[in-house]
tRNA (guanine-N(1)-)-methyltransferase (Kocuria rosea subsp. polaris), 272 residues
Amino acid sequence: MRIDVVSIFPEYLSALDLSLIGKARQQGLLELTVTDLREFTTDRHRTVDDTPYGGGAGMVMKPEPWAAALGAVLGGGPAPAGERPVLVVPSPAGEVFTQATARELALREHLVFACGRYEGIDERVVDWSREHFEVRPMSLGDYVLNGGEVAVLAMVEAVGRLVPGVVGNPESLVEESHADGLLEYPVYTKPALWRDRPVPEVLLSGHHGRIARWRRDRQLQRTAARRPDLVASLDPAGLDRADRAVLAEAGWVVSGGHVVRAGDGASGEPVA
Ligand code: 6GU
């Protein structure tokens, strides 16, 4: 996979030299290039921003350096046959980036990340880019960062670890949080007794069936407690009798093909 990042703070992305992603780059599994947007300015002050038309606070990133930088990333000449690169534009006004997004992007050949700063990039850059890229404005969640760089670190790590060969043991991708729409179960290691706290006895039993059931129950309970939005998105077809019993205990029932809070219009359910 090829990844390009364009930023006015290329040093910010140096964290991608480290750890799993750094190793994948050394092994040639990921080809990652960081480009300094200011290299594509033409004035003495290397200006990348200007005041917003229509007034208002803050500054807007100028279109010309962005078009030049993205053009260089595309490589001049005619567009190669095959799929267009994806242009991810990090923004709190984007679509929310999820594990499903990471899985989708991990299948692509070429990802380009355009790190905006200030109040954002002139919208015409986004419009023009649609002629050359599949453009995806993306947000990490409902809070505001000062620029796209920190978000790109998160997104590149989430996508990069799904590229075949990057994570040593692919089994570890199967059981982690969000793999099945639920949060991960709690984990324990030695010693079996620590500060008067024992490891849950079932985990020492060697009984694989009971351990799997216990872990599934903890996933369901934890997800109900912390992420009711995820419970409401579960497909009832994937829930067995034991799952439904745990969810009922947490106040959720299957009704009309959906998982809903007990009492929320579910026929025959007692209202608390
Ligand atoms: Cl992707 N960018 C910025 N600037 N702020 C954010 C974000 C992205 N996601 C959440 N907040």
Summary: Residues 208-226 form the longest helix (19 residues). Residues 90-92, 94, 138-141, 143-145, 147-148, 151 surround 6-chloroguanine (CB under 6 Å). The mean pLDDT is 94. The radius of gyration is 24 Å.
